[in-house]
Amino acid sequence: MRRLLTTAASVAVCALTLSACAQETTNEPLLRPDNVDLNTDPGPPLPAGSHIEKAGTIDPAPRVDADIEGSYRPDDKTPKERVPDIVKRGRLVVGVDRSNNLLSYRDSATGEVRGFEVDLAHEIAEDIFGDRSKVDFRFVETSERIDALRSGAVDIVVRTMTISPERQREVAFSIPYMTTNTRMLVLNNSDIESIEDTRGATLCAVIGSTALDTIRRHAPEADILQTRSWGDCHMALQLNQVDGVVVDDALLSGMAQQDSYTSIVGEALETENYGVAVAKPTDDNDTRGLIRQVNSTLERIRTDGTWLELYDEWFGDYLTRSPLHAPVYLDEEADPDDTENTDDTGEAEES
Fold first, then answer.
1. Per-residue pLDDT band at 65 (split at 50, 70, 90)
2. Looking at the predicted structure, is the pLDDT value of residue 267 above 60?
3. Are 123 and 115 contacting, i.e. CB atoms less than 8 angstroms apart?
4. Average per-residue pLDDT in the chain?
5. CA 147 to CA 9: how far, in whole Å?
6. Taking a C-beta distance cutoff of 8 angstroms, is the pair 223, 203 a contact?
7. pLDDT: is 1 or 312 the higher one?
8. Based on C-alpha coordinates, what's the Rg of the chain?
9. What pLDDT shows up at residue 41?
10. Looking at 32-46, 49-63, 261-275, 323-337, which range is the least confident one?
């Protein structure tokens, strides 16, 4: 019996010793490695690649006192004569966006690329090949559009690209395929009803977009969250990281269609035109035939009712139809060899 008690006491002492040791080890402070920073910002992180521009730190670019150039008028040639390389290849390569709802986006249910601009690309292919399916879509980011055209990675870009004198230094444009008004998207419970209500607010626009100067010009006391995509702006609005998104109402309509908790508010801040972008004509790459081919399609869909059908299908529930103005064409008789070898550089902008 005595032996059993002695053994039990020994076990108890060992248990107490181990417990004390374990407790001492557990209370040892945990050290953070010196090269790891703690994230002290509350809430979810800002979208990847985004940054905040504080109000008043950058002045809006001065308005360019220049007229927008006309485009190349369609001629009486056949597609095979205008764009022989594209006809030989057997497909049209088009740069589009993957997430601009209603304009150009990948349908998550079917995997198909859909939208107003996608249908427009199919119409151009129809007139070239007699087959609207002969289109190869390439997703291009804002910063990639100009390089994609210059390198020949795409034939055309149909991606909410606003026609402006600055951009015409870098690319050639078709006649306009849509007229848009720059407005603002806010949450339904927001107190913001117009751009005048944005003092001290944070507004969102995409890096390199024309909307940045619109905000700087019309809302100089608002901070700007600059993101890589309009989808990131929409998510930032949903997460209350910004108070509003400023861009063309065609893009805002796509966001509002996805999110019933948002509304488009305020008067039009700017009125702009989207055009199909093509590489500038040069001696080594005469793209005038392609521009004429695109304009031939745009002329057709303007006159046969196709444009109205497409617009009403995609935007009829959200926008009042903005009529297209009469196309403006270059006076080629004054300069029949109107090609350029200039290497102008400038900021690429997205609407």
1. low
2. yes
3. no
4. 86
5. 82
6. yes
7. 312
8. 29
9. 56
10. 32-46
pLDDT score of 37: 44
Confidence band of 44 (pLDDT split at 50, 70, 90): confident
Cβ–Cβ under 8 Å, residues 319 and 249 = yes
Q: What is the 3-state secondary structure (H, E, C) of the chain?
A: CHHHHHHHHHHHHHHHHHHHHHHHHHCCCCCCCCCCCCCCCCCCCCCCCCEEECCCCCCCCCCCCCCCCCECCCCCCCHHHHCHHHHHHCCEEEEECCEECCCEEECCCCCCEECHHHHHHHHHHHHHHCCCCCEEEEECCHHHHHHHHHHCCCCEECCCCECCCCHHHCEEEEEEEEEEEEEEEEECCCCCCCHHHCCCCEEEEECCEHHHHHHHHHCCCCEEEEECCHHHHHHHHHCCCCCEEEEEHHHHHHHHHHCCCEEEEEEEEEEEEEEEEEECCCCCCCCHHHHHHHHHHHHHHHHCCHHHHHHHHHHCCCCCCCCCCCCCECCCCCCCCCCCCCCCCCCCCEC
Side chain identity at 143, as an amino acid letter? S
Of 77, 301, 56, which is closest to residue 174 (Cα–Cα)? 301
Q: How many residues are there in the chain?
A: 351
- 47 pLDDT above the threshold of 90: yes
Contact call for residues 162 and 349 (beta carbons, < 8 A): yes
Which residues, including other chains, have CB under 8 Å from residue 175's CB and lie 6 or more apart?
Answer: 71, 275, 295, 298, 299, 327, 328, 329
Taking a C-beta distance cutoff of 8 angstroms, is the pair 270, 264 a contact?
Answer: no
Using pLDDT thresholds of 50, 70 and 90, give the confidence band for residue 59. Answer: very high
